[in-house]
Amino acid sequence: MTTFLAAVFLFGLLIFFHELGHFLLAKLVGVKVLKFSFGLGPRLIGKKIGETDYMISAIPIGGYVKPLGEEIGEEIKEEDKPRAFNNQPVWKRAAIILAGPIFNLILAYLIFVIFLGVKLPVAIPNLNSMTTTIEGVAEGSPAMKAGLKEGDAIVSIDGTFVHDWNEMAEIFSKNPEKELSLKVKRNNELIDIEVTPEPTNIKDEKGEEIVVGRIGISKKLDFKIVQSKEIVYAPLKGMEAVYDWSVLTLKVVGRLLTGGVAAKQIGGPILIIDSAAKAASAGVFTYFNFIAIISINLAIFNLFPIPVLDGGHLMFLSIEAVRGKALSDKIMNAVTKIGMALLILLIVFVFYNDIVRVIVPWIHGK
């Protein structure tokens, strides 16, 4: 139940802020908004205030804003045409679309400002410090017995390339007492090393004792710490924290596209739900810090130039601004279908990753 509530609150807050951005900008520039729904699916309850139906729908994860004239081919009364979304100049439509991701950044900003205002720090990891280069080898450990040394970079484990320290550590953790074949980079040369993780008893998030594999290597992960000594500086420092997390997210996306980060590291709703539950159990600070980070990720993901996402709509508007007229409905429909197909493939892929990383270990009791 705790997991469900943590997930519902997280998704609800993220999507509410996103849709609130679209809604407020639409109202601000004079576009008629027909619906503002918290949740998806059938309408449960609601109240029409003025021209907008404010409602709660059956599925609590999600939400949407429906401005007049957003859909292709929508019938619009003559007197409503000046206030229809599709009849607005490019800059107004772009502002409405862009407001969603911006409000997700605002949500993260507000969370960080509150943390900094009460003198809690915001930590941003240094991506370069998360490489697989070993900084320490414990005396008498499996790593030392196998011949691993400080400065070695582990390239692959049993033929699987590893891209960061956490990914590598997870493999060792899941394979106690199993001999693993490592490909190691030492002084610009690749060497082969066999190592067997030593079984170690630890306690998981629930406080239950489990057995994991350890080989006795260590690394100091580097973090940038954003702090505010006085409450008056919190708003400025909050902007710095959002900026740094946004830059880190873009770097991860860049490495993902160039192969520097494994595609299997991409997570979806199941992983987010699992992580949200763990963050909630770790405390209020950890939970809301997680919400802020996911909100920044959501903002950036929504700006990808993929049809059906906000970034795709902005791409169409950019083309319209250059051409002086919108693309035909036929082209828009065709491109949107392609974008939807790509998005569905991405969803299937992240769900597969989630099942492998969360559901399968849960079934096996790991």
Shape: elongated
Radius of gyration, in Å, reads 24 Å
What proportion strand? Answer: 15-25%
- Tally of separate helices: 9
Structural class by secondary-structure content: alpha+beta
| Main sheet: strand order | 6-5-7-8
**How much helix is in the residues?**
40-55%
N-end to C-end Cα span: 20 Å
Secondary structure layout:
Elements: H1 2-28, E1 33-49, E2 52-67, H2 90-117, E3 122-125, E4 136-137, H3 142-146, E5 153-157, E6 160-161, H4 165-173, E7 180-186, E8 189-195, E9 198-203, E10 209-214, E11 217-218, E12 223-226, H5 234-258, H6 269-282, H7 284-302, H8 310-323, H9 329-363
Antiparallel strand pairs: 1-2, 3-12, 4-11, 5-6, 5-7, 7-8, 9-10
